[in-house]
Design brief:
By secondary structure, the chain is an alpha/beta fold. The protein has 21 helices and 16 strands.
Length: about 575
């Protein structure tokens, strides 16, 4: 039984909630058809909660008010997608209610989650029922009702979750889009998974990311996610053309100028839907679906400088889900697998069919790993080719993506030295202007994307992006598949290998020694930024240990960890 939630306990609840949604994000993605059938709700909720967990991980909040404040601030800045923003609002309301409290009892906690629901409803301009809003509201109401006779917080939360699942089951009847797809609301189910994780923390249970979520949790172990028979939406029942607004636009603006926030709401209301505007003390967080991301960003700048921005093409996301659904729906039109292991072609990506230019610059990038691909998409890459070491795409594969890019000038990021030549062969094969930036690693490609300036000329961008990749040094830690001799090293099958660019730095069974060897070599460049991209078989503890070893040797660099999910390489380490 639990009668008081301390700051430390609330921290455990958030860490558990983040692990719970991360473990079920694939399942939630498969339910995602509302407000747009783009299949990313689980990922967005997981990344949003993950931001809170990261912020709390190394802190020791002395009060529940402080723990909730840290959580809310991190979620606001890390919120992704409609579901992620609403999730951040739920915890923002919780934090405001608990602000000055040292601990919280059942009544306090029930009131806090109710306050969170109120905050979410107020920020969503046109709240729809049969969504996460409905599920969270009815669950909160149940919690408040339970506290009339119960002071055990575990019992209160258990009852709230029970009523939440009853509400979730009814979402299919409340929302015609869900009815058409034959599924319950993705965001609502994700929220209940988070609450279940928090409940386990109250009971003293600690959750970690499962093998399903991490594809193997050992530091350097092999593993693959297993197949399952989860409830899944039929994305083929939705026409991409039915998506009224193409671009999901999210940004955070620092409130420097004193302008009425209602004016921004009115501006957005006539230009899009799925609008969420969070008016915080120092920041404005906006989520909107529209066809005018440029004009919206321009208007946002009148309120202050942009802190973050993300624009995604939801029609493109939906097309991918259609292809995936066709591949698994009995009786659906057969989809031919590509020989290089890529996803099947989109209908608009058949060789010979070129997308009409909608903008000046577009980007095609070669990438592998769900995390790495997500980074490239967030930075504005139009088309991603899944490939790299051991699975190089062909010139035709690259050309197909170039033609599918709705731009007159297309930059190509090969991100592997063995793909550069294949990319260059595309230049005379299309009427589009193709410029190959000779990036030799995914971290180099990321820096090139950051350097891209949409208002600069073609020549200026070519120079900016090319200069950017020269400032990036990439180290890799992988394993040897067989015995061999290389660069004076005698390598045994199963040994770990550390490489810097094309040079073997160290080999052996001691992974810490390998990381230290890499750190010493990278330190020679006096980098300002170090980024560790963790692979698909790496758990969070192993990634943190690698980052710790790097920062000990390179203390002056700003260091961070990003989940890359790449195969073959346990870690990609970028120094810039």
């Amino acid at each position: 039984m639990t009668h008081q939630i301390t700051g430390a306990l609330f921290k455990s609840m958030i860490l558990n909630g983040a692990a719970a949604i991360d473990n079920h994000k694939g399942e939630i993605n498969e339910l995602n058809v509302f407000p747009v059938p783009d299949g990313d709700t689980g990922t967005n909720m997981s990344l949003t909660m993950g931001a809170g967990a990261t912020a709390l991980a190394d802190s020791a909040p002395g009060t529940i008010g402080r723990a909730a404040e840290i959580t809310a601030g991190a979620l606001l800045r890390g919120a992704r997608g409609n579901s992620g923003v609403i999730l951040s609002l739920l915890f923002r309301g919780i934090a405001r209610h608990l602000k000055d409290m040292d601990t919280a009892d059942a009544v306090d906690f029930a009131a806090a989650i109710t306050f969170g629901v109120d905050s979410a409803y107020k920020a969503v301009m046109k709240p729809a029922e049969g969504t996460i809003l409905t599920v969270s509201r009815l669950a909160a109401n149940a919690a408040v009702y339970e506290t009339e006779n119960e002071r055990d917080i575990e019992t209160v939360l258990e009852n709230a979750i029970k009523v939440g699942y009853e509400a979730l089951g009814n979402t299919i009847n409340q929302n015609p889009v869900l009815k058409k797809a034959g599924v319950v609301d993705a965001g609502g189910k994700g929220y209940l998974y988070i609450l279940e994780g928090m409940l386990k923390a109250l009971k003293g249970e600690k959750l970690s990311r499962s093998a399903e979520a991490t594809a193997g949790t050992a530091a350097f172990a092999d593993g693959r996610p297993s197949s399952d028979s989860r409830e899944k939406a039929d994305f083929t029942g939705f026409d991409t053309g039915d998506i009224k607004f193409t671009y999901c636009t999210e940004f955070i603006v620092s409130k420097k100028n004193q302008k009425d926030i209602d004016h921004l709401r009115d501006f957005l209301d006539v230009r899009g839907d799925s609008i969420v505007v969070v008016d915080d003390e120092e920041l404005i967080k906006v989520h909107v679906h529209s066809n005018e991301p440029g004009s919206i960003i321009t208007e946002a700048l009148t309120y202050g400088p942009l802190i973050t921005i993300k624009i995604e093409n939801m029609k493109e996301q939906h097309t991918v889900k259609i292809v995936e659904s066709q591949a698994r729906v009995p009786g659906a039109e057969a989809v031919t697998a590509q020989p290089d292991g890529q996803a099947p072609e989109h209908p608009s990506e058949i060789p010979g069919q070129s997308a009409a230019p909608e903008k000046c610059f577009g980007v095609v990038a070669v990438s592998v790993g769900d995390g790495m691909c997500a980074v490239f998409r967030d930075l504005g890459v139009d088309q991603i080719i899944v490939g790299g070491q051991t699975m190089n795409p062909s010139t035709e594969d690259i050309l197909t993506k170039i033609e599918a890019t709705p731009a007159s000038v297309v930059f190509v990021l090969p991100n592997n030295k063995n793909i550069i030549m294949a990319a260059q062969q595309c230049i005379p094969l299309t009427e589009k202007t193709v410029i190959v930036i000779p990036s030799k690693s995914m971290p180099q490609g990321i820096s090139a994307m950051i350097a891209l300036d949409t208002v600069a000329s073609v020549e200026e961008n070519t120079e900016l992006m090319t200069q950017a990749i020269t400032r990036v040094h990439t180290a890799q830690i992988t394993y040897a598949a067989r015995d061999s001799e290389y660069d004076g090293y005698s390598i045994k099958a199963g040994d770990y290998l550390a490489l810097l660019e094309d040079t073997l730095v160290a080999t052996g069974q001691d992974t810490i020694a390998l990381v230290d060897a890499v750190a010493l070599r990278l330190a020679e460049y006096a980098p300002e930024f170090i980024t560790v991209f963790s692979g698909e078989d790496v758990d969070e503890n192993a990634a943190n240990e690698v980052l710790k070893r790097l920062t000990l040797t390179i203390p002056g660099a700003e260091a961070s960890i990003v989940y890359g999910g790449q195969p073959v390489y346990y870690f990609l380490i970028s120094a810039e």
